[in-house]
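Practice record 12: protein with 4'-deoxy-4'-aminopyridoxal-5'-phosphate.
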Amino acid sequence: MLDIQKIRNDFPILEQKVYGKPLVYFDNAATSQTPECVVNTIRDGYDRINANVHRGVHFLSQEATEGHENARKRVQQYLHAAHDYEIIFTRGTTESINLVASSFGDAFLKDGDEIILSEMEHHANIVPWQLLQNRKKIILRVVPIDENGELKMDVFRSLFNEKTKLVSLSHISNVLGTVNPIKEIISISHSHDVPVLLDGAQAAPHTRIDVQDLDVDFYVLSAHKMYGPTGIGVLYGKEKWLNVMPPYQGGGEMISHVSFEKTTFNELPYKFEAGTPDYIGTMAFATALDYIESIGIENIAAHEQDLLRYTTGQLMQIDGMRIFGTAHEKSAVISFLVKDIHHYDMGMLLDKLGFATRTGHHCAQPLMQALGVEGVLRASFAVYNTKEEADAFVAAVDRVAKMF
Ligand code: PMP
């Protein structure tokens, strides 16, 4: 059993009141809160280490370089990647996908080629491919979802043909919580010789990820959803792909030699890391991963699953409750509407009672269209949330629902 109170003590932000009410933070799928140890790494980084990496011969630069490269090794270990140079630091999931869309797209896609996405994708896994469509006449094939919010796997299977060049899907949906059958997806795709990118933004905080066991080609995530700092993300890519992909951005760090006649590029991972990286952010992310491991990702997931089951059961008692996403395997997000109350009105009133939730389309407008709604209200859990908070939340939703 986790000592949640002890864990909560690591997050000073949770102690505060908003509008005179105790804060209940249920917007973790958007951004998780940051434990003190991560903030301490940031403070210590600026207090003691701050210097540009990879360039200086001086002591601080070496310290910063070592911290940054150790962070890369920490991420490698966390994802069980074969090599540390398969870990590319980015600004987040969005930038990671843009990197692949641009670089893989330039190298391997030609007019008429196809990419498989799904109806439940976040805009971050739609728009970069559409931007690529401005340069190449590629076709996006979209896997629909069924009434539980699960991918229609028979349709997925039927979408492959000799033009299919990439499958790019979310591991876990940020709205429905659906955990997609990624092993099956990867195995089907590879049987057609098609590589797979998984958007792990919602999975990495809740599930153990082993990129070698999955045999996934690209895996992307954001640190700020994993108790880490904002502005840091990861692109894991298999060496065989990263080696043959062209650089994404040009500048310092990513070159081997520059002249006006010809420039040669640095080796992995630096080829994809133009400019000064957020080395203090990467160190703080490594601390966040240590923090997760100190609690145990399985323990975190079990606690969140308890909260999910309990809160779902309680919310279902409310008259007019509609929950979106009833997948077999579901992560700890609950998207819902009550009667015909507008999600924004409900969210605003809950906010005034101290509950931080998310309202709107959740950067998944095509999914909203598939669900036949304009938006939903979403509560999402993290390790520091409690059953008492869930009880208070259910009571507040009930109270607000009765006001309409
Ligand atoms: N994909 C999914 C599934 C997400 O939930 C999010 C964050 N809401 C993103 C991509 C984008 O992540 P970021 O804004 O950190 O780049």
